[in-house]
Design brief:
Largest interface: A-B, 30 and 34 residues
Number of strands of chain B: 5
CATH topology of the largest domain in chain B: Rossmann fold
Order of helices and strands of chain B: HEEHEHHEEHHHHH
Shape of chain A: globular
Number of helices of chain B: 9
CATH architecture of the largest domain in chain B: 3-Layer(aba) Sandwich
CATH class of the largest domain in chain B: Alpha Beta
Structural class of chain A: alpha/beta
Helix content of chain A: 40-55%
Largest sheet of chain A: 4 strands, parallel
Largest sheet of chain B: 3 strands, parallel
Number of helices of chain A: 4
Number of domains of chain B: 2
Radius of gyration of chain A: 15 Å
Strand content of chain B: 5-15%
Strand content of chain A: 15-25%
Shape of chain B: globular
Order of helices and strands of chain A: EHEHEHEH
Strand order of the largest sheet of chain A: 2-1-3-4
Distance between the termini of chain B: 56 Å
Structural class of chain B: alpha/beta
Strand order of the largest sheet of chain B: 1-3-5
Oligomer: heterodimer
């Protein structure tokens, strides 16, 4: 388990979290390379099925990054994202997935440092949780 | 429609004296169409459907269990050992009665209850719990006229049940979630608007919205629309979009959570007819 490197799929809203990730890069901040960022128009666009799909197809964790409350470019997409993640986390344990594998964070375009910190924390937490277990057929 | 005069029953264990040996004696492809109901739960189920596949030109998944796994597949949320323990207690193993030969043992339980299509290739599906008469009719008229749709067709609508529901949708927000027995629903208004979890938005039409018309919510027996894909997750998405506790904002978060917490038994409600495609082992059980 010592060489386990968690794979993280990150859905990042283009207005805040993705810009925050960009800032982390242009500021040359160091953070774990385990994350695969996917730019989405809004955190409210992220379907629960994408999250589960990612976890079933090899991701060990999914990060959803949106704008801070009050800052959503589309006014309320981030609130919708929050309710979705809240409900999703209620059903994940019954589907056999640890809810800690899904994390929703608010990261603004100015928070490169916060993005790097969020990724580092999440990767460490997933490392402790171990790889996503997928039951083999039969 | 007169069906029985136009077909010959080759094999029907529930109604005719049909034995496995009769089936084995038939030549390959002897049966024109085998309508199979039920989830594939045991080794014996698996053997029978493999045999039927060999002897039949068409295999039709008939009913919600064959289509989606059905209620028996809710047991897939637990391991096989857990199930046996819950049903028979610690230490009991399925086996023959004392003194009887091994062949008298009950058929072995498969690790999961499977929809038919995960056991053998399926040509067509007649969905529903039970399949509505209209859809059965659609299948038989296509079959008997020889004008079948392309293989893989599900005999139900592609559009959601809401499209054919006579109730009127107005509020488009969910201020509370209630279970059907807790309120007497308004006879005209959308059940979802009244806080009853109705799976109409993610379920195929084809039953003329029989349950909502009778005051009960749709529980999803015709299966998800192609657009919805995963029923439960699509419904999570829809519910989360609809829930409102006044003005949206940080201050509303606790009351929004209170509403979302009113959803009792989310898995049993949102995935009543099948969770077979969730291939994840339970975590945190070693």
């Amino acid at each position: 388990m010592a060489d386990f490197e968690p794979k993280v799929v990150a859905f990042l809203c283009r207005w805040c979290a993705y810009a925050g990730a960009d800032l982390a890069g242009t500021s040359r901040l160091q953070y774990p390379p385990n994350v695969v960022p996917i730019r989405v128009p809004c955190s409210g666009r992220v379907e629960p099925s994408w999250v589960v799909d990612a976890l079933q197809k090899g991701a060990d964790g999914v990060l959803i990054g949106g704008c801070h409350p009050g800052d959503c470019h589309y006014v309320s997409g981030n609130y919708k994202a929050r309710r979705r993640v809240y409900l999703l986390k209620k059903i994940l344990p019954e589907l056999g997935i640890a809810p800690e594998r899904v994390r929703l964070e608010w990261v603004s375009a100015t928070e490169g440092k916060r993005f790097a910190q969020v990724v580092a924390d999440f990767v460490e937490e997933l490392r402790a949780l171990g790889p996503m277990k997928v039951m083999s057929e039969g | 429609m007169e069906v029985l005069s136009q077909v010959e029953i080759a094999f029907w264990p529930a109604l005719a004296d049909s034995k496995k040996a009769d089936l084995e004696a038939m030549p390959k492809g002897y049966i024109d169409a085998a309508l199979i109901n039920g989830a594939i739960r045991t080794q014996e189920n698996l053997e029978m459907v493999r045999l039927l596949r060999e002897k039949s030109k068409l295999i039709v998944a008939y009913g919600a269990c064959a289509h989606l796994g059905g209620i028996p597949s809710l047991a897939n949320l637990y391991g096989r050992e857990e199930l046996l323990k819950a049903a028979f207690g610690d230490g009991w193993r399925p086996g023959p009665p004392p003194g009887a030969p091994q062949e008298d043992a009950p058929p072995e339980l498969l690790p999961k209850a499977l929809p038919l299509a995960q056991a053998v290739p399926v040509d067509y599906t007649v969905p529903g719990c039970p399949p509505p008469a209209g859809l059965i009719g659609e299948f038989f008229s296509a079959f008997l006229s020889g004008e079948m749709p392309p293989p893989g067709h599900v005999f139900a609508k592609v559009k959601a049940l809401c499209e054919e529901c006579p109730r009127t949708r107005e509020e488009r927000v969910l201020k509370k979630i209630v279970r059907p027995h807790e309120i007497v629903p308004d006879p005209e208004a959308c059940l979802l608007d009244q806080g009853i979890i109705c799976l109409g938005p993610v379920t195929r039409g084809g039953c003329s919205a029989a349950c909502p018309s009778a005051g009960m919510p749709c529980t999803g027996c015709l299966g998800p629309t192609p657009k919805a894909g995963d029923m439960g997750l699509s419904m999570v998405s829809a519910l989360a979009s609809l829930v409102r506790a006044g003005e949206e904002g940080e201050a509303a978060i606790p009351s929004e959570n209170e509403i979302l917490d009113q959803l009792v038994d989310p898995i049993g409600t949102l995935y009543k007819y099948g969770v077979p495609d969730m291939p994840c082992a339970k975590e945190g059980e070693g």
